[in-house]
Amino acid sequence: MDTAGSGAVSRGRSLRGREETERQEEISGSRTAPGRDVIRQHPEAGEEESRDVGLLTEDGSEGELSGSEASVVGGLVGGAAAEGPSSFRQPGELPCLIWILGHSFVYWGARWADMRLNGQQLGLSRDEAKICWIGIPGKQWRRVVPEVYRFASLDRPPNVLLIHAGGNDLGVWSMRELMRDIKFDWLRLREAFPGMVLLWSDIVARLSWRHARSLEKLNRARVKVNKEVGRFLVKIGGLVVRHWELESEPRLILRGDGVHLNAVGTDLWLLSLQEGVHRALRVWRRAQT
User: Measured between alpha carbons, how far is 198 from 158 in angstroms, rounded to an integer?
Assistant: First the structure.
């Protein structure tokens, strides 16, 4: 079992108990969702603490950004959110709503995509789909489900949900704990949103892992998490985005910090996401007929 050491795991379990309580409260509705204009992010491992941040909208306007920036790109706030949940329309009346949710890879990926030929829409027309990028630097897996519920309360739930997260958890939680939690949360999302197409984006190799005693062991754990989580999601009807091109030579696709993707790596990562999103859209369309 790959862990960050007995001390880190002991502290992690205590923190996880408090976080699980928060998650249950948020999902049950006993915790009030934060306001629309500003979101309070919790400190995450591997990144500086995120403070109050504004929402970055598609037209480029943004609120105050401080600390580790977070962004929501694609017009998540507004529209149905202004009318409340009762205004959610039946499938087919609106373009397919696609969320790409995750940590800093999503944050930087959205900005890089904006400069590429296919743009943040990944080659899809706005008549057929609307893509929202929700990138929060430092995000750990425990925040995924609460944030899906939170953002769904601001807009309509997505028809397609692609998640790229889990990398910041390796070395913080044991491999078994992480796989257990991710599988459990996939089931929660499937139960809460039965018509939603779910996608898992593989954790990408790194040359530096926070709290890691052995780079080799952490990367082996990463491969196993990807395999087990991907297999489980496919079993319950989801899809997996593999990043084969990023596996062979991590030094060629990572920045100097050994964690974040460089320009070449981001391009390759986006191509894999684009293929996965197009595949998910086809699955969603078939389900509407």
Answer: 10
